[in-house]
């Protein structure tokens, strides 16, 4: 078969399987397995395809037809220009998370070499993404899952520039949080699990293939926000900032938690679809400042 024939077959197969963007995904699979962009398909698409590459391509199409996440099939996914390694056991980077990173970078303008934590780091998208917008930042990425840690470590090694590091730990553990000094950080950032437990079975099949540990936010979806505010907010300096990703219907609830914890300048940020996607706040300055 030719690359063009393989592309058209993949597009047809994925369309029949109910994939939302079959042409776009078929093109991404072509680029990954055949080494051909859309322009390449136009130039050499009618030449015979390499048999080994064709077989791998068709296997990838079958996996996608079976609803394996495209990110896992490709083995990496772009986030803020960084091709982050990804696979089974780690949450897939998503464009919406850029809202958190961009809001945090804006709040840190004028802070020289800000230091902070990326809690529930997964692939390291938040911490590494921040470094692309705030090149002087120093970030420690905290992740509990032993399945996610290899991806985090590889991404940090590739893109951390010696300014991002990894640490395995449980964000919900008071003993773990106690290892960090109070008032020592310029910022906290997190894309925590925030799906209410009861909603997990209703998620898209692809999302259900991602680790429940990275999705399950407890009965009301707010368990991690409460823990971050109780255990980790004290680690932030007066005037330091906190930025978290939220579900599209959690803006009011999480903003209320921020305000109840004494954070100032609390704001809900929207994504490109005009849905609530992040909440930010500033730690209250000490009296007299």
UniProtKB/TrEMBL annotation:
Gene field: prmC
Catalysed reactions, semicolon-separated: L-glutaminyl-[peptide chain release factor] + S-adenosyl-L-methionine = N(5)-methyl-L-glutaminyl-[peptide chain release factor] + S-adenosyl-L-homocysteine + H(+)
Residues that hold S-adenosyl-L-methionine according to the record: 143, 191
Domain Methyltransferase small: 104-207
Pfam families attached to this UniProt entry: MTS, PrmC_N
Family membership: Belongs to the protein N5-glutamine methyltransferase family. PrmC subfamily.
Keyword S-adenosyl-L-methionine: yes
Residues that coordinate or bind substrate: 191-194
General function of this protein: Methylates the class 1 translation termination release factors RF1/PrfA and RF2/PrfB on the glutamine residue of the universally conserved GGQ motif.
Alphabetical UniProt keywords: Methyltransferase, S-adenosyl-L-methionine, Transferase
InterPro entries: DNA_methylase_N6_adenine_CS, HemK-like, N5-glutamine_MTase, PrmC_N, RF_methyltr_PrmC, SAM-dependent_MTases_sf, Small_mtfrase_dom
Protein name from the UniProt record: Release factor glutamine methyltransferase
Release factor glutamine methyltransferase N-terminal domain ranges (all copies): 6-75
PANTHER family hit by this protein: HEMK METHYLTRANSFERASE, MTRF1L RELEASE FACTOR GLUTAMINE METHYLTRANSFERASE
Keyword Transferase: yes
Gene Ontology annotations of biological process type: methylation
Enzyme Commission code(s) on record: 2.1.1.297
Single GO molecular function: peptide chain release factor N(5)-glutamine methyltransferase activity
Native organism taxonomy: Bacteria, Bacillati, Bacillota, Clostridia, Eubacteriales
């Amino acid at each position: 078969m030719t690359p063009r024939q393989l592309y058209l077959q993949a597009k047809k197969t994925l369309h029949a399987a109910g994939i939302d963007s079959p042409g776009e995904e078929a093109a991404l699979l072509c680029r990954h397995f055949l080494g051909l962009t859309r322009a390449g398909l136009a130039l050499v698409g009618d030449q015979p395809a390499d048999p080994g590459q064709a077989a791998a391509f068709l296997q990838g199409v079958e996996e996608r037809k079976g609803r394996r996440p495209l990110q896992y099939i490709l083995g990496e996914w772009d986030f803020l220009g960084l091709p982050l390694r990804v696979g089974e056991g780690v949450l897939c980077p998503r464009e919406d998370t850029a809202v958190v990173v961009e809001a945090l970078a804006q709040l840190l303008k004028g802070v020289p070499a800000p230091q902070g934590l990326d809690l529930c780091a997964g692939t390291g998208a938040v911490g590494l993404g921040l470094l692309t917008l705030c090149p002087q930042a120093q970030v420690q990425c905290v992740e509990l899952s032993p399945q996610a840690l290899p991806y985090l470590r590889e991404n940090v090694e590739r893109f951390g520039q010696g300014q991002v590091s990894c640490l395995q730990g449980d964000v919900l553990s008071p003993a773990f949080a106690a290892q960090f000094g109070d008032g020592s950080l310029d910022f906290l950032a997190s894309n925590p699990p925030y799906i209410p437990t009861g909603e997990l079975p209703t998620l898209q099949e692809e999302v259900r293939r991602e680790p429940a540990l990275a999705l399950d936010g407890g009965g009301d979806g707010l368990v991690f926000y409460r823990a971050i505010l109780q255990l980790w907010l004290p680690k932030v300096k007066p005037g330091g900032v906190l930025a978290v990703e939220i579900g599209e219907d959690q803006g009011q609830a999480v903003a209320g938690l921020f305000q109840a914890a004494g954070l100032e300048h609390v704001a809900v940020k929207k994504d490109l679809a005009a849905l609530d996607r992040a909440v930010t706040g500033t730690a209250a300055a000490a009296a007299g400042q």
